[in-house]
Design goal:
Layout lengths: L2 H23 L8 E5 L5 H9 L4 E4 L2 H10 L6 E4 L8 H4 L3 E7 L2 H13 L4 E6 L16 H6 L7 E7 L8 H21 L8 E3 L6 H6 L4 E4 L10
Helix pairs in contact: 1-2
The structure holds pyridoxal-5'-phosphate.
Length: about 240
């Protein structure tokens, strides 16, 4: 194996172990936490190494890059996750490639995705992105807007709302991020009581390289980890 392939395999093993440990600390089952390997920093070769190392859920934040990589890896057992802002005019080309849209960040986008899904006879799994940190530079709904978004779910037969997604405020330490993650979990718990039956909120997508362990302790079911997987490689 090349040094890079080796290094990526070691990094994946280390991150998976950290996931298991964080799950154990919070009395959760490790299999309930999905590692989304964020491949946005690297090219096809490094992504192949991720897949070899057992990462079959890959995340990209830019639609064009996702299309290109997904096309090149079409024969591989990969599920693609769109984790960044999706412009409405790119939704049509993105949908066929993805298993889950993490960044459902506006009603107009959700409406557009629903329309495309219905027209193409599929159901698109989506998460509602919540701006829990209140950071003005971030996409996503304010927490208080989410109940009215979920109330629209019966109008969107092409969507299946599977949960919530959030990013902690930029530049925060893990212990500060904990507050944002706890806020997302508490919001989910409150919403469960009032959401229409179409809405399933089993997923919380939160936590990145610097804070995924804290996110797991606060209830994350999906962690989106990028840079920690490429430490010590050229990329
Ligand atoms: C890049 C990115 C990540 C991964 O960040 P790392 O700190 O490199 O792990 C996670 N989520 C989103 C939305 C991203 O854009």
């Amino acid at each position: 194996m090349s040094p890079t392939v080796n290094r990526i395999a070691e990094n994946v093993a280390r991150v998976r172990e950290a996931i298991r440990n964080a799950a154990a600390r919070s009395h959760r089952r490790p299999e309930d936490i999905h590692l989304i390997a964020v491949s946005k920093y690297v090219g096809i070769e490094a992504i192949e190494s991720l897949v070899e190392a057992g990462c079959h859920d890959l995340g990209e934040s830019r639609p064009q890059e996702l299309w290109q990589k997904a096309e090149q890896l079409a024969e591989r057992p990969v599920r693609w996750h769109m984790i960044g802002h999706l412009q409405r005019n790119k939704a049509r080309r993105t949908l066929p490639w993805i298993d889950l849209l993490h960044s459902g960040d506006s009603v107009r986008l959700l409406e557009a995705v629903d329309e495309i899904a219905v027209a193409t006879h599929r159901i698109c799994d989506v998460l509602i992105e919540v701006n829990v940190s209140g950071d003005a530079s971030k996409h996503g709904f304010q927490a208080e807007q989410v109940p009215s978004v979920l109330a629209r779910a019966p109008d969107w037969p092409g969507l299946r709302i599977r949960g919530l997604m959030a990013m902690a405020a930029w530049g925060t330490q893990p212990e500060e991020a904990r507050r944002d993650f706890a806020a997302l979990r508490e919001l989910r718990d409150r919403l469960l009581a009032s959401a229409p039956s179409e809405v399933v909120l089993e997923h919380l997508s939160m936590g990145m390289s610097g804070d995924f362990e804290v996110a797991i302790e606060e209830g994350a079911t999906m962690v989106r980890v990028g840079s920690a997987l490429f430490e010590g490689t050229e990329s």
